[in-house]
Specification:
Strand content: over 45%
Helix content: 10-25%
CATH superfamily: Autotransporter beta-domain
CATH architecture: Beta Barrel
Strand order of the largest sheet: 1-2-3-5-6-7-8-9-10-11-12-13
Radius of gyration: 23 Å
Order of helices and strands: HHHHEEEEEEHEEEEHEEE
Largest sheet: 12 strands, antiparallel, barrel
Number of helices: 6
Distance between the termini: 45 Å
CATH class: Mainly Beta
CATH topology: Lipocalin
Shape: elongated
Number of domains: 1
């Protein structure tokens, strides 16, 4: 896990992990700025480039896009290191769409899916009383793909799928204080204030389990994703990246009828628990390795209206993990 820890002694594996988990949000960017403070009056363009390059920030840019584009990570508002001087806020908005088709005389079902996503990260770097930076990263992505659900038994099925798409990542920063403003020409377009376009491709494999226990319906799945993300157009070569990222997730929903209706549409309560984990070392770039989630939704059966969508649900979730806490909205639909 390479170059970040050169010259740093760690007393335990935990300290090393904690240092690396904070590396994207604080330490690597702060170290680069500190270097620029020392050499702001000297024409060292190549040295400046080398400093940013050695911070390995490009892998963090790939992690941002992956976190926003992966369908199993939910729409949410997250705080990393909440309440500390290292607090970072992350907003994720997603619109995952999936539809399976019934085929006559076939038990397997072809599936199409698309995901539209937006992610925003806000950071405040207080270098000293006269120098503050407020960088913001924003990512937009769109993917589309398909797969096929193959039944294994009455309750079990698998779904291999593949999708591909486009992502745009940009950074904008505010500079506060005379020393910060003095460094703007050095960092502009390199560390801060830049744009990057990338393509991505993901392979998914999910195992589904569905079963009815009286009135309680259990719907669960375990899934794994391997994705490759690569930039093709950037403001500067310092933002170029090419990374492969693996994730895994487990989701369990329990649906129970409430015995009441709204406008003659039967209502159900849905309990949800789940976990999503980044398996590769790139989780250190976001400060997030694993997120747990639990929540409740209210679901309405709208079959009587004759729409393509038979059920609609809306609810809320609590999200948490090591050094991470947040909340999320949960939407659901069934054809």
């Amino acid at each position: 896990m390479g170059p970040y820890n050169k010259g740093k002694n760690f007393n335990s594996g935990y300290e090393k992990l904690y240092f690396m988990k904070r590396s994207f949000s604080r330490l690597r960017i702060s170290a680069a700025i500190s270097f620029f403070m020392l050499f702001s009056g000297v024409a060292l363009a190549q040295t400046v480039n080398d400093t940013i390059r050695s911070a390995h920030l490009s892998s963090a840019y790939a992690s941002i896009i992956n976190f926003s584009a992966e369908p199993d990570f939910s729409s949410s508002h997250l705080w990393i290191h909440k309440g500390s001087s290292d607090e970072t806020q992350m907003n994720v908005t997603k619109f995952p769409l999936r539809h399976e088709f019934e085929l006559e005389n076939h038990t397997w079902k072809p599936m199409v899916q698309a995901t539209l996503a937006r992610l925003k990260i806000d950071l405040t770097l207080n270098m000293d009383p006269d120098q503050k930076y407020e960088p913001e990263w924003e990512s937009y992505s769109a993917t589309i793909g398909g797969g096929v659900r193959i039944p294994l038994s009455k309750n079990w099925s698998i779904l291999p799928a593949i999708d591909a798409g486009y992502a745009h990542l940009k950074n904008e920063a505010s500079y506060h204080g005379p020393e910060a403003i003095k460094l703007k020409p050095i960092m502009d377009g390199k560390l801060f204030d830049w744009n990057a376009d990338a393509w991505l491709i993901n392979g998914h494999l999910a195992l589904f389990y569905k079963r009815q226990f009286g009135k309680l319906a259990i719907d669960s799945h375990i899934s794994g994703t391997v994705g490759h993300i690569e930039s093709y157009d950037t403001t500067h070569e310092l933002q170029e990246f090419s990374e492969t990222i693996s994730t895994a997730s487990i989701k369990i929903d329990g649906t129970y009828p409430l015995g009441i209706s709204f406008a003659n549409d039967p209502l159900f309560v849905v309990g949800h628990i789940g976990n999503s984990t980044i398996l590769t070392d790139l989780h250190t770039d976001l400060g997030i390795s694993s997120i747990y989630e639990t929540g409740l939704s209210l679901q309405a059966d709208i079959t009587r209206h004759g729409f393509a969508i038979k059920k609609l649900g809306l609810g809320a979730m609590v999200l948490w993990g090591e050094d991470v806490i947040g909340w999320g909205l949960r939407t659901s639909y069934r054809f």
